[in-house]
Amino acid sequence: MRILFVIGNLGDYHVPRYEALVSAASSRGHEVALLEVFARSGVYGFPQERRAAFFANRPQMAETLVEDGADSDGLGPRGTARLIGKVRSFMPDVVITLGYNTGYSAVLCLLRHLTRRFKLIYMSDSKADDGLRQRTKERLKRLIVSRFDGALVAGEKHRRYAQSLGIPKERSRIGFDVIDVDYFSHLAQAACGDPDAVRARFGLPRRYLLCVSRFVARKNVGVLIEAYRKSGVHTQDIGLVLVGQGPLEAQLREHIASLGLTSHVTILNSLANQEMPNLYALAEFIVLASEFDQWGLCVNEAFAAGCPAIVTRTCGVAGEVVIDGVNGFVVEPRDVSTLAQRIGQLGGEPALRERFAAGAQSAIRRWTPLLFASSALELAEVTTRNASNPAQRELV
């Protein structure tokens, strides 16, 4: 089987996923090629070091379509023609692409139905409670999504949403939002070997709870700040470290000052992936208080470092990775009182933190690139099971 993996930008998160897919496919006698549409990320401002290392090794059957563009850019007529040409040249049995609403995914979907020469699988972490859903928009979305042959999604709630959009459960699998668990775990262990140096390097307090988030309204960072104050853990010398940036930063700083918490709250700009295990390793726990989050990869990373979590019910990881009372707590969005109570409880009970930490490390062992690869290959095999051999024919 020939599999073409098409992605807007092969960021650091995607590299271990793709490498695991190549390895697993090779062991089954399948062939995988990578087509990165844009060389730059339109999401992450810091250097993507794992991507750079990947391409520095000159991998076989991997190329970038637009070297001077970012995945936030449009594809354009020339890029569209080149994409079609590359698909035609490779003659895949299956194409796996990121999202169902990107420009390049739309081109692939159209090409799939014009030629009927390959199966098309999309990757996504959308779920039903990601904000308000409009009925008309959902009907249009279903019209588009149902044209795909399969879906590789984040978790079971995302799988149910894909089903509502026309993808039967037998043609969906979970495991999209995974991380290189060993990578984060090893770096966290190294940080624990010299905690004073890590604290000095990043200006961290001796004890702290951590939030990794963009400073935008739906992330509810202001709610977390209120709950932190109400919990009273700042009087126990437990600080709050916020890692992120965004349009609400000035407003959040004013809010922190108005509550008299300036000396207790540390704000760091977004850090590269390889820096984050330092912060997870020394944190008491992580908090994600979002109105909704499609997943919450920072929780995967924290769990790999043995750091428990408090998340809202509408975060994708809730009930999938974070199990209430086992490796963390799950609360309702904007419930300041309950969030404050859980912060105080987890901050004040070392034995509970240790139990949750062990549960976190145990739970995250499932959510590795191997899960991503095995799910992707299962979908490829399921969707092509009754298909004729398209690789013997020209696509267009």
Explain what the structure shows.
The protein is of the alpha/beta class. The protein folds into 2 domains: 2-178 and 368-392, Rossmann fold, CATH 3.40.50; 181-364, Glycogen Phosphorylase B (Rossmann fold). The protein has helices at residues 14-27, 49-56, 76-90, 103-115, 135-145, 156-164, 181-192, 195-202, 221-231, 249-258, 276-282, 297-304, 336-348, 350-364, 369-384, and strands at residues 2-7, 31-40, 62-70, 94-98, 119-124, 150-153, 172-174, 207-212, 238-243, 265-268, 285-288, 309-312, 328-331. A 7-stranded parallel sheet has the order 3-2-1-4-5-6-7, with helices on both faces. A 6-stranded parallel sheet has the order 10-9-8-11-12-13, sandwiched between helices. Strand 9 (238-243), helix 10 and strand 10 (265-268) form a beta-alpha-beta unit. Helix 1 (14-27) crosses helix 15 (369-384) and helix 12 (297-304) packs across helix 14. The longest helix is centred in the last third of the chain and has 16 residues, at 369-384. Mean pLDDT is 94; it is low at 388-396. Residues 206-361 form the Glycosyl transferase family domain. Keywords: Transferase. This is Glycosyltransferase involved in cell wall bisynthesis.
Outline:
With 396 residues, the protein is an alpha/beta fold. 43% of the residues lie in helices and 18% in strands.
What topology does this entry show?
Blueprint: E1 2-7, H1 14-27, E2 31-40, H2 49-56, E3 62-70, H3 76-90, E4 94-98, H4 103-115, E5 119-124, H5 135-145, E6 150-153, H6 156-164, E7 172-174, H7 181-192, H8 195-202, E8 207-212, H9 221-231, E9 238-243, H10 249-258, E10 265-268, H11 276-282, E11 285-288, H12 297-304, E12 309-312, E13 328-331, H13 336-348, H14 350-364, H15 369-384
Parallel strand pairs: 1-2, 1-4, 2-3, 4-5, 5-6, 6-7, 8-9, 8-11, 9-10, 11-12, 12-13
